[in-house]
Design a protein that fits this description.
The protein has one domain (7-288): Alpha-Beta Complex (Spore Coat Polysaccharide Biosynthesis Protein SpsA, Chain A), CATH 3.90.550.10. It is built from 11 helices and 13 strands. It has helices at 38-48, 63-67, 73-81, 85-92, 112-117, 120-123, 143-154, 214-220, 232-237, 261-273, 276-288; strands spanning 7-11, 32-33, 36-37, 53-58, 101-105, 128-131, 135-138, 157-163, 173-177, 184-192, 203-211, 246-250, 254-257. The chain has a 5-stranded mixed β-barrel. Strand 2 and strand 3 form a beta hairpin. The protein binds 1-O-phosphono-alpha-D-glucopyranose. 1-O-phosphono-alpha-D-glucopyranose binds next to strand 11 and helix 9.
């Protein structure tokens, strides 16, 4: 039987330079879509998928992300006194039980594979999830839950996959698959950020992974790859010929690249429109815009 996935690694040590100056004194994962920081979306999705243990791979200046999940008794008391139960419920979303979040420092920015490897001692010998909070996914069934279900069926590594514009392959890990039919497709090759002219397909890796502990073994001796960084893609590629294999899951849902300004703005509009209390006002405003 496949072991249940209960641990998730969140690599959040990046500097967020694309959003300077906003990220000068604030982690980019604290940037807010409507009224929740990006990190909250990632944690909500993970909890819905049954994750109970979270490993934040952080760096200097990221303390606000850990503080965010602290209880705030003073605030709770004051909201209770004022009878603001709706806000109390909202606040409770950011409560995490003691011990649920661990932090590990990534001492050097050596790449995504290195960030995940930094968490190896806390992961141990079990399958685990990796969530990149920059990728925000709007879906009926949380993306990570779709992936844990696919992992239960296959037992192998499962990677969230999505078709992208063929001229954008140099922004993603790219999968090659023999059969493009079903939703979970067996991967027979993967390469980090290939030039469009060399890309084996336009099926891209999105920032959600369920990985077997063998990926950590591969990372132990991993050489730097694309861009001189230790690439997670390369360590996963080494599992393709293993007994359990690697699967790309074409998840149901819409992905927003909140690591880019355009993606962040699109997500703000989409998540705003998805909130019943904001929908009419926002839709009305958008209709008044003169575009073009
Ligand atoms: C990382 C991965 C890449 C993946 C992407 C998804 O790249 O290395 O394979 O396609 O996340 O967002 P990054 O965007 O961190 O450069």
């Amino acid at each position: 039987m496949t072991q249940k996935v209960t641990k998730a690694v969140l690599p959040i040590a990046g500097l967020g330079t694309r959003f300077l100056p906003a990220t000068k004194s604030m982690p980019k994962e604290m940037m807010t879509l409507v009224d929740r920081p990006l990190i909250q979306y990632a944690m909500d999705e993970a909890r819905a998928a049954g994750i109970t243990d979270f490993i934040f791979v952080t760096a200097k200046g990221k303390g606000a992300l850990v503080d965010y999940f602290d209880k705030s008794p003073d605030l709770e008391r004051s909201l209770k006194e004022k009878g603001k139960t709706d806000l109390m419920e909202e606040l409770a979303r950011s409560d995490m039980p003691s011990g649920a979040i661990s932090t590990i420092r990534q001492q050097e920015a050596l790449g995504l594979g290195h960030a995940v490897w930094c968490a190896r001692r806390l992961i141990g010998d079990e399958p685990f999830a990796v969530i990149l909070p920059d990728d925000v996914i709007m879906s009926d069934k949380p993306c990570l839950q779709q992936m844990t279900e696919a992992h239960r069926e296959t037992g192998g590594c499962v990677i969230a996959a999505m078709e992208v514009d063929p001229d954008q392959t140099d922004k993603y890990g790219i999968l090659s698959v023999a059969d493009t039919g079903g939703r979970a497709v067996k991967v027979n090759g993967m390469v980090e950020k290939p030039d469009p002219k060399d890309a084996p397909s336009n099926l891209a890796v999105i920032g959600r992974y369920i990985l077997t502990p063998r990926v950590l073994d591969a990372l132990d001796t991993q050489d730097p790859g694309k861009g001189g960084e230790i690439q997670l893609t390369d360590a996963i590629a080494k599992q393709i010929d293993g007994a359990l294999g690697v699967w790309g899951l074409k998840f149901d849902g819409q992905r927003f690249d909140c690591g880019s300004k355009a993606g962040f703005l699109q997500a703000t509009v989409a998540f705003g429109l998805a909130r019943p209390e904001l929908r009419d006002d926002l839709a009305g405003f958008l209709k008044t815009l003169k575009l073009g």
